Amino acid sequence: MTADDRLIVALDVPNAITGLELTEKLGERVNFYKIGLGMLTGGGLALANELKQEHGKRIFLDMKLFDIGATVEAAVRGLAQFDLDFLTVHGDPNVVRAAKEGAAGKDLKILAVTVLTSLDRADLDAALIRPGDVPDIVAERATRAFEAGADGVIASAQEAAMIRALPGAAGKLIVTPGIRPAGSDLGDQKRIATPARAIADGADHIVIGRPVWAAPDPAAAADAILEELTSPQARRPNV
Question: Phi/psi at 116 (nearest 5 deg)?
């Protein structure tokens, strides 16, 4: 199958060696990878740099940064030197603005996290997040992130169409984790969608980890997802 940059494969594996082995199995069919906190102490940054500089892959660094503005700005400035493609920060407007300052002059896209796809209303209650329907909170956080200069947001595919319709969403990226091909185990995800549904509803990129790296044949699993992305079900209504 031909690579499709709408598919981002999450390298949620223990270390850089395992991650590199997975990318070798996937070959040219996958061009975009996510590296997150789980691999940070296992050579994640080194792997990100190797995949970018030596293999020409696109890299999404999923750090979900959240700190005072000066610290976020300094952290992003340091990470921006690796010439990566996407970086996540929490959706707090002050954090977003600081991250954009740190990324100034670079092509690094700053993506603001709205509400994690592993959370539902009960989880938000436990975290003392204000009352309200989850989609409404996602919409408000996305709006504020866009106003603060975010290049895009991270949100459930269930909210993609709503975010795409927001006044400030024009030209912004919507990246959706929590993607599960039909019949896949949900794992720790709660607000999910299939690859085709996510794209049809307005997502620019889908992030898929376990259904690929935990599959008996990761390459075949990726091929099935890529095939679904070319199906009529993945077309947006106005396309």
Answer: -55, 145
